[in-house]
Specification:
By secondary structure, this protein is α/β, with parallel strands linked by helices. It contains 11 helices and 10 strands. It has helices spanning 15-29, 50-63, 65-70, 79-87, 114-120, 142-153, 168-175, 189-198, 213-220, 244-253, 268-298; strands spanning 9-10, 33-37, 73-76, 95-97, 129-133, 159-163, 181-185, 201-204, 225-228, 240-241.
Length: 299
Amino acid sequence: MRQRSPDVLFQIWEFQTHGTGLSLAGQQANVPVITRFVSDVFNEYHGHSDVKKAGIFLLDNVLGQIPMRLSDAMIVFGPYGASQAKSHGMNPDDIVTIPPPGELAEKFSPPDDKATLRRELDLPMDRDIALFVGRLSQLKGMDFLIKVIERVVSERNVQFVLVGSGPYREKLAERFSEDVARLPGYVPHEEIHRYYKAADVYVHPSPYEGIPLVLLEAMNCGVPVIARSAGDIAFLTPNIAETPTEMAATILTQDWSDEWLNKEYFTIRYQSETLDDLVRSIGHSSMSDQNTKNQAGDD
C-alpha cells in the first residue's frame, strides 16, 4: 500500500471482514477509507440459532464495529442504513446515501407480450402470478412466505412461482401442489428477466436486507413489489408489509403501487457525481491533513 501510495481506500464487499481489514490498514498507512454498509448487518444473527448465532453475532456486532469507528466516510443505501451506522458510532456528517444503481441491462424492461412469455414458461394465462426469486431458505423468509401463500390461496386462485434453489425447495414441494406454488429451481441470470415479465406482482419475504437487486430487476420490468419491512426497502417502494397477514391482504386486494420512490437516487448520474464528490473531498481532506503535519514537523 505504501509503495502504491493510494489517495483513498474503498471497500465494496463483506463489510464485517473486508471493511474491518481495510479500515485497520488505512489507519496504519494513514490513508483515508470509504466503507460501504449495505445490509442489516447488526440484526442478521437473529436469523440463526445456537453456535452459529453466537458466531454471526461476534462477526457482525464485534468486528462490524471497527469500520464504524475508523472509516473516514461510509456509503449507505438509505435512511435505515444511515440510522444503523449512526447508532453504532459513525459520525452522521460522514454518511452518504448511494443505493444500488437502478439502471439495469435493457432486458430488464416491461414486456412486449406477456401472454407469449407465459406460454413459453408453461404458466397459467388466466390467473395472477406472484413471483419470488432467490434462495429458498429460512434466512430469506420462507416460513413467512409459506404463511402468505396459505392465506392467499385459501381465498383466491393465485399462482405463486418461486425461482431458486435451497433447503426449503423440498419442503415447499411437499406442502403445495404445482397449481399453488411452481418451483422451477435455479434459473440462469440471463434468463430470469422472462419470469419477471410474466409476473403480476413480486413478493419479497426476507427479514434482513439492504436493497436487494431482485427488487430493482422486478421494478425495471414494470412489476410492482410487495416486501416485508426490512433494511432500506421502504426507501424504494411504498408496498411494505409487517406480517404475513398484511402481505396476503395486499396481494388479495391488489392494493399495491408501482411507484418507484426516491428514483433520482438510483440513477447512474446521481451515483457517479456523488461518489466522485465523496472521493475528492476525502482525498483533499487527507492531503490537507498531511500538509499540516509536514508543516508542523518543519517548524
